[in-house]
Amino acid sequence: MQSWKVTKLGEPKEVLALQEVPVPSVEPGKVLIEVEAAALNFFDILLCQGKYQEKPPLPFTPGSEISGVVRDVGEGCNVKIGTRVLATPGLPNGGLSEYVVIPEHSVYEIPDSMSSSEAAGIFITYQTTYYALHHRANLKTGEVLLVHAGAGGVGSAAIQLGKAIGAKVIATAGGAEKVKICQQLGADVAIDYTRDDFVDIVKKETNGRGADVIYDRSVGMYSTNPENVLPLMEESLSLVLPAEEFQMLR
């Protein structure tokens, strides 16, 4: 089978190589999946660059979300051969391969109504965002949700899930093209932070009240450089009401 391998660290287009490798064998508690679709996340780029917190040994195959069809099962598995599934492969043997072996507890059956591409891209971003908005932030109908980086993976999920809850969604993004994506996803207000002051706009849109919930996945991207992240956090925190009830969701 063919599999993408990161053979050295650097930019993905320079370090990824398509290699011929044996089809992996199943083991007890694991299933063999023929991959039909694979999702790409920002952390896949960081993995290739060696900048992610998880640093698998070289060579490795990236790809943490796939969908496909179960072709073989190991001893003790309940899933049936031929079942359409989504799954989350673990490093160093990620999902950018024709076949992948994954523990059954990381495999989930998908309905016939869901396409392979939809299934491959739904798990990490939507599960992360659903948990954050429902179980941590407790976002309610009629509240205001401010989403930073709304055109990204978890940002786009937050816009859609926020609207499904019934919140007013204000999204920020960098540039006109990304602002348009936020609008297409359903954001009530989309702000180009490279051109406009999002603090002023949020205050105007909420009559000075501010946002009930702020969803910001970009903070972690800059956590190694406080000079980059602190101004954004300070501006965002100025919009949270009531301030005394603020808590960082981790």
Which properties best describe this structure?
alpha/beta, single chain, five-stranded antiparallel sheet, 22% strand, 250 residues
Number of strands: 11
Order of helices and strands: EHEEHEEEEHHEHEHEHEH
Q: Which percent bin holds the helix content?
A: 25-40%
Strand order of the largest sheet: 6-3-4-5-7
Low-confidence parts? 220-230, 241-250
| Number of discrete helical segments | 8
Distance between the termini: 39 Å
Shape: globular
Write down the overall mean pLDDT.
Answer: 90
Query: Percent of residues in beta strands?
Result: 15-25%
Judged by helices, strands and strand pairing, the structural class is alpha/beta
- For the report, how would you describe the main beta sheet? 5 strands, antiparallel
Radius of gyration: 20 Å
Structural summary, described in words:
This protein is of the alpha/beta class. It has eight helices and eleven strands. The strands form three sheets. The protein has a five-stranded antiparallel sheet with strand order 6-3-4-5-7. The chain has a four-stranded parallel sheet with strand order 10-9-8-11, with helices on both faces. The protein is globular.
Summed up, what is this model?
The chain has 250 residues and is α/β, with parallel strands linked by helices. Helix content is 30%, strand content 22%.
In terms of topology, how is this protein built?
Layout: E1 2-6, H1 12-15, E2 16-20, E3 30-38, H2 42-49, E4 66-73, E5 84-87, E6 99-103, E7 107-109, H3 116-120, H4 123-136, E8 144-147, H5 153-165, E9 168-173, H6 176-185, E10 189-192, H7 198-205, E11 213-215, H8 226-237
Parallel strand pairs: 8-9, 8-11, 9-10
Antiparallel strand pairs: 1-2, 3-4, 3-6, 4-5, 5-7
